[in-house]
């Protein structure tokens, strides 16, 4: 039988906007020693601003228009941000044959012309010679009609409570705070450094994130538990693989919420330390 105080604990957590899907997760949460975070939308706001455009022949506004159109069928934070930068109504009838490649970018036909927007991995995959860009930022390379058309530099901002969230986890005795991301190395390292993460792994495809979590699961002791925190569609496999999957509910995708064991009703990362503290208190009462 399940002790009553588990229910009290679950009830107490829910008042804080922390939904725990079962009493067994309370116990796992209380033993968490590693907390692994996805970057975009979890530690950062996932709202990118355009802060540079470089192109070959096209006008800036034309490159942004192609970017917004090719991205129009995607729900990735990058897509939403490029559509916002374009700022005009998008005529979806101009866009056909959309193909989104997770961790790479997106391709489609815009007005019947082949357009691609994504990172260096996507350009390599399409055999497009691109110009290296050394700005610290997320670089969206664009190819139009099979040739390189330029790139758009976008950047995301760190959530106001992320640094405090990492500090409170450390204070609560968490051994390792890790950041995983599909984004570029320079961006990832600058975010990780400013947050005081113990480890950072970048340029990962969704499958690489699962492998990284498996590696971490292997090095820790059996008793210590690993939590993964994410919000995206791509995060569902990692959320399931971790000892405990925590989804950020406010911005999160349905797939992530479904795969998670704990759902945070808002997207404040401070709630993770809070959830761990509530679970420990609840476990102390039970045993
Ligand atoms: P994260 O790990 O930060 O959540 P993703 O795995 O979703 O990031 O994406 C990793 C990288 O793949 C992005 O930083 C971007 O370079 C590229 N990418 C993914 N989706 C898109 C898209 N719709 N448009 C352009 N680039 C994309
Ligand atoms: Mg993500």
TrEMBL record:
Localisation per UniProt entry: Cell membrane; Membrane
Organism domain of life: Bacteria
Family, similarity comment: Belongs to the cation transport ATPase (P-type) (TC 3.A.3) family. Type IB subfamily.
Name of the featured protein: Cd(2+)-exporting ATPase
Native source organism of the sequence: Lacrimispora defluvii
